[in-house]
Amino acid sequence: MLAQQPGFYQSLIARGVGDAFDRHVFACILAKGASEFPRPLAAAVGLPAPELARLLAAWFPGIDGLAPVGEPGPDAIEEADLRRLLMDHATCPGSDAARWLAAMVARRSLEPDHLWQDLGLSSRADLSGLLRRHFGPLAEKNTRDMKWKKFFYRQMCLDEGIRVCKSPVCDGCTDFSLCFGPED
Ligand code: SF4
């Protein structure tokens, strides 16, 4: 039942291997998901049990005693499109890490806070770092540092030719403050 205990992040980090930043990111997301118990971990992070097992084996091979992770449950209506947007812009499209992170980011984007908070990261800088590292071609398009959730949804709408904005340009738009500005 380790995942239900406080300090799960530290337990993961202590048993983790590999690149320090990616290990930190995965540990943050898993700890955030685990904090939502009794919601199944698979549902909280958007990964089915076999994929979660592969992630844990790859990054946290010493971890054991996890509670049953359950099932991810059905996608929200826009979730597959967001996963696709991310993977279409993956820095390394064949990488497991990118695929896992695309699923996790898409699932956590459904939560109500700023995305870095929904992912359990330490700061917005962590989120920007993970997006630049794993989804570089997408992150590069956010040239004005738009809030990340807003940016994803605007990109999906642009890709579909859907006009959801009140204004054709951001400058002067009455929703400017909703799309730009600090995320803290
Ligand atoms: S500021 Fe206005 S035009 Fe720009 S993305 Fe937001 S809603 Fe759309």
Structural class: mainly alpha
Q: What's the average pLDDT?
A: 91
Bound molecules: iron/sulfur cluster
Shape: elongated
Number of extended strands = 0
Helix content: 40-55%
Residue fraction in strands: under 5%
Task: Return the string of H and E elements.
Answer: HHHHHHHHHHH
Supply Rg. Answer: 17 Å
Largest sheet: none
What is the count of helical runs? 11
Number of domain modules: 2
Q: Can you describe this structure?
A:
The protein is mainly alpha-helical and 184 residues long. Helices cover 53% and strands 0% of the residues. The chain has helices spanning 8-15, 20-34, 41-45, 49-59, 79-88, 96-108, 115-118, 124-134, 136-139, 148-160, 176-179. Helix 1 packs antiparallel against helix 2 (20-34) and helix 5 (79-88) packs antiparallel against helix 6. The chain is elongated and about 55 Å long. The two termini are 32 Å apart. Bound molecules: iron/sulfur cluster. Residues 154, 165-167, 170, 173, 175-176, 179 line the site of iron/sulfur cluster. Iron/sulfur cluster binds at residues 154, 165-167, 170, 173, 175-176, 179.
